[in-house]
UniProtKB/TrEMBL annotation:
Protein name: Signal transduction histidine kinase internal region domain-containing protein
Top-level lineage group: Bacteria
Pfam families for this protein: His_kinase
GO molecular function, one term: phosphorelay sensor kinase activity
Transmembrane segments: 12-28, 40-58, 79-98, 110-131
Amino acid sequence: MEKVKRFQVSSKVIWGSSIALAILASIPKLFDGDSTPGDIIINSSITLLFSVFIWYYNMYSLPKFSSQRTHQSLFNWKLLLSVVMGIVVMVILVIGHQELFQISKMDAPIMFELRGVLINLIVYMFLHLLFQNYQTQQMGVELERTKAVNLGAQYELLKQQVNPHFLFNSLNTLKSMVDIQDPQSSDFILKLSDFYRFTLESRKLDLIPLKEELQILDSYVYLLKARFEDGFVLENKVDQRQYDSAVPPFTLQLLIENCIKHNVVSLDKPLHIKLYTEGDFLVIENQIQLKRGVLSTGVGLDNINQRFSHLIHREIEIEKNETTFKVKIPMTYDYCNN
């Protein structure tokens, strides 16, 4: 699993802001006639060191910036601890500068403490807002990654949807043809082999040219014709100028399989399916002659729709009236396979 990126604040931001605060804190000294250059430098030094300390202290304790998640409010016990630590550090810095530079006269300690509390609050709130923004971005990234993984897994499952019943029925048809010594048995075996060769070659592809999809369909239809004979009729009127467009593999096979699943297919009542193009849509149309006792759940069409939404960001269209059922699938010309 990919490690969550650690929250960081640039050292340029830390030192740049600390220097800026030190300069701002020393501006009043420039207009004080009693101040010496040494007073200004010492005042700036205390502010600079304090600001740097507060930055790093809050970074590593408020909260500990890692892959952990926090839902704490802006004001909590850590802020109080930070303020107390700031007061202690400011006292140490003031006393340390007094002892190091042997200064007898400095600003009142309370002025340094008030300055320290103000700097502490500014740094604390700025860091807190930065971290909240970081967490929001990380949650967005994780959500998108999870969504992509789920869609990828779902699509891999969808690509395996070559119905096992089809293989079972095809083998039964082949057995019957062999039993009666049908001269087309060899052609049937070749077409069945071609169909599953296409399956193996295309199963790892997201999109394939419509021309190849129609080749897969040709083998599939041959196998259906061997099974249903004249009970199944496919009329292919696809414009050849659309052959360079692309669709997800086995889309047509799944749609025709869906037609057979829900409609009567027999010599007495042949199932007619039309395949043609309409603008940038490929249309599969069949007359409605529903089987008794077969309820449509819509799962098959919903799965196909998810494939198109995931791969080309467009959805299929369904048109239905009392006599005909149409599924219009969008085609794309801008595609590549990974």
